[in-house]
Design goal:
Elements: E1 2-7, H1 13-22, E2 26-31, H2 41-44, E3 54-57, E4 60-63, H3 65-76, H4 90-113, H5 120-142, H6 153-163, H7 175-184, H8 188-197
Parallel strand pairs: 1-2
Antiparallel strand pairs: 1-3, 3-4
This protein binds glutathione.
Glutathione binds at residues 10-11, 38-39, 51-53, 64-65, 101, 104.
């Protein structure tokens, strides 16, 4: 059985969402953040990359959410929620699977700047964030989901950054994204995963 190591308030909630979408069984192991807000020693011991999510599949410890999502869909769900190379929207799918990490890097750099808005780095971050916002708006003007007409892992990858008020969630110039998020967060699997492992979720008693 797949074991999801969930770090409280983190992108590991994506994997829970995926498993709920696929209807696959999984075990959730909670790791609370330390008083410094960072991951605890129990999480650091899981994988050398020291990032959440980490997922255990048999004797393998998997890291990097995009790679984990693809791994689970192909190994355990016959490619469900992915797009194959012979499909017209294969590139779109790959683009949205990868672009997420780009915007995530911006977020961490922005945190490091502590609200500073002047200077080359702050300007570059703003320009790239604006570019990401434009790309999202244009994609969602063309199709109901980021990679085309169907819901895929690309939507699971992107929702965290689009929703989080500390990332793009506070912008008010993304009407297409807002309508998309209103729709996508009504999915039963999202609602269930959010209750289990979302930003407001608490570990079960004793965990
Ligand atoms: N590209 C990685 C990014 C993972 C990442 O940055 N995760 C954050 C949590 S949202 C993390 O591990 N932070 C370290 C910490 O909280 O100490 C992925 O998608 O898995």
């Amino acid at each position: 059985m797949i074991i999801i190591h969930h770090l409280g308030v983190s992108q590991s909630d994506r994997v829970v969402w995926l498993m709920e979408e696929l209807g696959l069984p999984y075990e959730l192991v909670w790791h609370r953040r330390g008083p410094d807000g960072l991951m605890p020693a129990s999480y650091l011991a899981l994988h050398p990359a020291a990032t959440a999510p980490v997922v255990q599949d048999g004797d393998r410890m998997l890291s990097e959410s995009a790679a984990i999502l693809e791994h689970i869909c192909h190994k355990h769900a016959g490619g469900a929620l992915t797009v194959a190379p012979d499909q017209d929207n294969y590139y779109d799918y790959q683009y949205w699977m990868h672009l997420n990490n780009n915007v995530l890097g911006l977020f961490f750099t922005k945190l490091g700047l502590g609200g500073q808005t002047e200077g080359i780095v702050a300007g570059m971050i703003q320009r790239r964030e604006d570019g990401y916002a434009r790309a999202v708006e244009q994609a969602l003007a063309r199709s109901p989901y980021l990679a085309g007409s169907a819901f895929t892992c690309a939507d699971i990858m992107s929702t965290y950054c689009l929703r989080s008020p500390r990332m793009l969630g506070a912008r008010n110039d993304m009407p297409n994204a807002k309508a998309y998020l209103d729709r996508i967060t009504q999915r039963p699997a999202y609602i269930k995963a959010n209750a289990i492992a979302g930003a407001e979720a608490e570990p079960p008693a004793g965990a």
